[in-house]
Amino acid sequence: RQLELPGATLFRAVRDGATAAMMFWFAGERGAYYHLGATDPDAYALSPSYVLMQRALDHFHAAGSAIAVLGGGVSSDDPARDGLARFKAGWGTETRPVFLCGRVVNPDAYARLTGARHVTNGWFPAYRSGGNDY
Fold first, then answer.
1. Distance (Å, whole) CA 25 – CA 68
2. Using CA atoms, how far apart are residues 66 and 28, in angstroms rounded to an integer?
3. Buried b (16+ CB within 10 A) or exposed e, 4-14
4. Count of CB atoms within 10 A of residue 81's CB?
5. In this predicted model, what pLDDT tens digit does every residue of 82-108 receive, in sequence order?
6. Is the model's pLDDT at 134 over the cut of 50?
7. Nearest Cα to 98, choosing from 29, 33, 7, 24?
8. What does the CA dihedral 119, 89, 62, 50 come to, rounded to 10 degrees?
9. Are 80 and 89 in contact (CB under 8 A)?
10. Is the pTM of this model over 0.85?
11. Distance (Å, rounded) from C-alpha 121 to C-alpha 1?
12. DSSP for residue 7
């Protein structure tokens, strides 16, 4: 469903006919927004996320995006150990605060998807609570 939204773009790295990594972005009037990405554990040594990030940034720059918002990492408790935050920082030229709206519009579905986890540390959505791998 998300791919049907205006501005949704999916980048995919393929190795030997199989997906090695993917990145999902949204683009709008003000820029491009990195939504999520994943890498097959067997492909980590090949670093496909670096190629995908470069392709995505080139694509959105050519399309006229003035900015690319990469988002944060997964662990606010220990940023020095947060590999995702380090990866994103390597592509950035500056850091700015970004405010995202988090709202549950279907509480029953949200409870099913999150396993009814009770989040007490402010992470949203709940599956990102404390940087745990859900």
1. 10
2. 10
3. eeeeebebebe
4. 11
5. 788 888 888 988 887 766 667 788 888
6. no
7. 33
8. -90
9. no
10. no
11. 30
12. T
Residue (of 62, 57, 64) closest to 93 by Cα position: 57
Confidence of residue 32 (pLDDT cuts 50, 70, 90): very high
**Residue 15 in tokens:** 């190795």
CA distance linking residue 5 with residue 1, whole number of Å = 7
Q: Residue type for 122, please?
A: G
Token pair, residue 115, equals 């396993």
* Residue 63 predicted with pLDDT over 80: yes
Q: How much is the average pLDDT of 128-132?
A: 53
Separation between Cα atoms, residue 81 and residue 99, nearest integer Å: 23
Cα separation of 31 and 68, whole Å?
A: 6
Give me the mean pLDDT over the 97-123 stretch. 71
Residue 11's region, left for phi above 0, alpha for psi from -120 to 50, else beta, is: beta
What are the φ and ψ backbone dihedral angles of 92, each rounded to 5 degrees? Answer: -90, 155
The Cα 73–Cα 82 span in angstroms is: 6
What is the helix (H) or strand (E) element at residue 110, kind and residue range?
Answer: helix 107-114
